[in-house]
Design goal:
This protein is an alpha/beta fold and 722 residues long. 52% of the residues lie in helices and 13% in strands. It has 27 helices and 18 strands. β4 (132-133) and β5 (136-137) form a beta hairpin. 35% of the residues are buried.
């Protein structure tokens, strides 16, 4: 019995280890926090054992030693790839908050999972700025970093100068002190460095423009704003007046070791360095354009949980984050051991903590995170491209307006406009086309022709319907101008669909009625023209009513930060059922064109409608060719101006070619048809149809078609073989 009991008691200590949930923690060691991560992991595992949490925290530290990752951007891309693929390899991710927009859709909202008391620690201060996206807490700050203006205390006191509150004050103060120092042979002093390094250039541009906002509460003005122009001009002035290209480009290592620590800088822009607050410098936010405005960029590291891990792992991961962001860990390790800034705002009222950190810096900073940029898919590519463009102005001779225009184009959604030459030319062409169509339309229906009682292959009703269709198609092109909206998208599509239907219905109707062989359909339609038209119009109306509930919407085509092509928008159907309806509508139009071609082929040699049939066929061929070109330009052309210009041109061609149909038929029928006037006394009975008035002959050599249309009896006599 003892032989059985002893091994049993020997196994008991290992049961907890076997049942423990292992939480995988992904972090990046590009910065100097390797030791901090190991301390935090060890502390949590010790805490877990002490409180029997049955959770083991295992860290994967991405470094040059075990991966090919050599920069924060490469680590960021790795995290993005893992999250996008819904990987469950890691449970907790440590990430730079500049990527919060990219990661947010794949990270768990922590607020519903953490206690109210814990969330209250981070609800105020700068923590929400780095951890909240789209009203969701997709992380909590492990620590926060601030960009700082280090102002040399000794030099300022020596010349009785105060910390500058505006950029103009900084220029004046720096000029005076540098000139005075040169009198004492001190030529190594750096007045202002700017921090335009490969790693920090974009954030430096961003912060400087932000410092030119009008009020402290204002958001980032944007590169398209007047503030951006003023800011960049002032930045170049600073470089010219008190600094140089080389000093602006000093790398982080030189700034830290050769300038900051030895006290050789007057005003140095750098991040908090995670050491005891130096007595050599005042630590403040960067000044603004006017007094009362300052700026400091936020950075640091966030802790987030993957959405895709099992629920059991999520609960365990919450325990990990709750511990690492607790008051105990933040105070004793983050602040106490590593002198890093915390996201817990109340600590900056603690006098002991304020001996280690600059509490006044945190309290007075009007801080901002530069990662929450609109229309940006890839922060790294965007920041690199913007930096390259603006450097051409700051360190070169490129015009500022031209440089900013290119920066704006990276994210701007462009629209077809009459302000551009190609847009104006197309607009003029469209207006001229409408004027020509209107004049021709009036000419077709003028008083003179009505008095002549000239029979038309397409009577007034059908001709009017056909012309309305042409105008609908042509006018739809006007919706290409200006920014798209969901309403404009839907109205444009509906006008095109109705326009084609209005053009095809008269053709199909007349070809069926004039079918050379005797059949009941032709006889029926001859007396039920209105019903035939209403059927297809109502059918088109029903189809378009579907789009009220599942409408076409605007989609922005963004080529990304690594492309020189300009972004634009187009109308798309995102609903599957809507795409099915639209496909059926396209099939219906294709069937209509095939029907017209097939009927035209059957009636090809009927002399009475010889010219009309050929006009129909030419029109349909033009429509088919234009439709094919319309699809090709959407598939292969990415230049929005050329795309919309071709689109408008195709619409003009389709509408004009269809209108030419009725105009040509009008001329042909006016010249070639024999008109037999009925007696005016029969006007009362002219609206009724007598089946005896129509005769169909199957004779292949000769035919006699006699039809009654309103008040005119028309006879066709064929002299050639069909």
């Amino acid at each position: 019995m003892n032989k059985i009991i002893i091994p049993f008691f020997f196994i008991i200590p290992f049961v907890g280890i076997i049942n423990a949930i292992k939480i995988r923690f992904a972090a990046n060691s590009v910065f100097i926090y390797d030791d901090m991560f190991r301390v935090l992991i060890d502390q949590f595992n010790q805490y877990s054992k002490e409180y029997n949490l049955d959770i083991e925290l295992d860290m994967m530290l991405f470094s040059v030693a075990n991966t090919t990752i050599t920069s924060t951007s490469e680590y960021g891309s790795t995290v993005d790839t893992l999250l996008s693929k819904k990987s469950i390899k890691y449970d907790v991710y440590c990430y730079d908050p500049v990527y919060i927009k990219k990661y947010a859709p794949n990270l768990e909202d922590l607020k519903p999972r953490l206690s109210k008391e814990h969330m209250e620690l981070y609800n105020v201060g700068d923590a929400p700025k780095v951890s909240v996206y789209d009203n969701k807490w997709v992380g909590l700050p492990l620590f926060v970093k601030y960009s700082i203006l280090y102002s040399n205390i000794a030099l300022l006191n020596a010349y009785n100068k105060k910390i500058p509150e505006t950029w103009d004050e900084l220029i004046d103060t720096a000029k005076y002190i540098v000139e005075e120092e040169r009198k004492h042979n001190n030529t190594n002093i750096v007045a202002y460095n700017g921090l335009f390094t490969e790693l920090n250039s974009f954030s430096s541009y961003y912060e400087f423009i932000y410092s030119f906002r009008k009020t402290p509460e204002s958001t980032f003005p944007g590169f398209e704003s007047d503030e951006a122009i003023e800011a960049l001009k002032k930045l170049k002035e600073i470089k010219k007046e008190i600094s140089s290209d080389d000093e602006f480009k000093l790398n982080e290592g030189i700034i830290l070791m050769d300038k900051l620590f030895p006290g050789k800088g007057l005003f140095l822009r750098y991040w908090d360095i995670g050491t005891l607050r130096s007595l050599m410098y005042h630590l403040t936010p960067s000044p603004g354009m006017i007094k009362g405005i300052n700026t400091s960029l936020l950075g640091g590291l966030n802790l987030g949980i993957s959405k895709y891990i099992p629920e059991e792992n999520k609960k365990a991961a919450i325990k990990v984050i709750e511990y690492l962001t607790s008051e105990l860990v933040q105070k004793n390790i983050i602040i106490g051991k590593y002198s890093l800034y915390t996201g817990i705002a109340k600590f900056y009222d603690d006098e002991k903590i304020c001996l280690k950190l600059s509490c006044s810096l945190v309290k007075t900073s009007q801080s901002i995170l530069c990662g929450k940029l609109d229309n940006i898919n890839n922060y790294d590519l965007y920041s690199k491209k913007v930096t390259t463009i603006l450097d051409q102005y700051l360190f070169g001779d490129r015009e500022l307006k031209d440089a900013l225009e290119e920066v704006i184009d990276i994210t701007r959604i462009n629209s077809f406009s009459m302000k551009k030459t190609i847009g104006l030319v197309i607009l003029i062409f469209m207006v001229l086309s409408i004027v020509i169509l209107l004049c021709s339309f009036i000419y077709l229906f003028n008083w003179k022709y009505k008095m002549e009682n000239v029979y038309r292959f397409l009577d007034s009703d059908l001709m009017g319907m056909h012309c309305v269709g042409c105008f609908l198609i042509l006018c739809s092109a006007f919706f290409k101008y200006g920014m798209f909206s969901d309403f404009k998208c839907q109205f444009e599509i509906s006008m095109i669909l109705f326009g084609f239907s209005f053009c095809f219905i008269p053709m199909i109707y007349r070809l069926i009625v004039c079918f050379p062989e005797k059949n009941q359909y032709s006889k029926y339609l001859l007396t039920h023209k209105i019903q035939f038209i209403l059927f297809f119009v109502v059918l088109e109306l029903i189809v378009n009513l579907f789009y009220v509930f599942i409408p076409f919407t605007r989609k922005d085509i963004n080529f990304g930060e690594n492309s020189n092509r300009k972004n634009y928008s187009r109308c798309v159907m995102t609903n599957i059922f809507g795409n099915v309806i639209f496909l059926l509508e396209i099939i219906k139009k294709v069937i209509a064109m095939i029907a017209i071609l097939l009927l035209s082929f059957i009636e090809w040699n009927v002399k009475e409608i010889y010219e009309e049939v050929r006009v129909f066929v030419i029109t349909i061929y033009v429509d088919i060719l234009a439709s094919i070109l319309f699809l090709i330009d959407y598939i292969t052309i990415n230049n929005y101006e050329i795309l919309y210009a071709i689109h408008c041109f195709i619409i003009i061609v389709i509408s004009i070619s269809n209108f030419v149909t009725v105009y040509t038929i009008k001329i042909l029928t006016s010249k070639n048809l024999i008109i037999i006037r009925k007696d005016q006394t029969n006007n009362d009975s002219s609206t009724s149809f007598n089946e005896d008035d129509i005769t169909f002959s199957s004779n292949s050599n000769t035919e006699l078609l006699s039809k009654t249309f309103n008040d005119t009896t028309i006879s066709y006599k064929e002299n050639s073989t069909y």
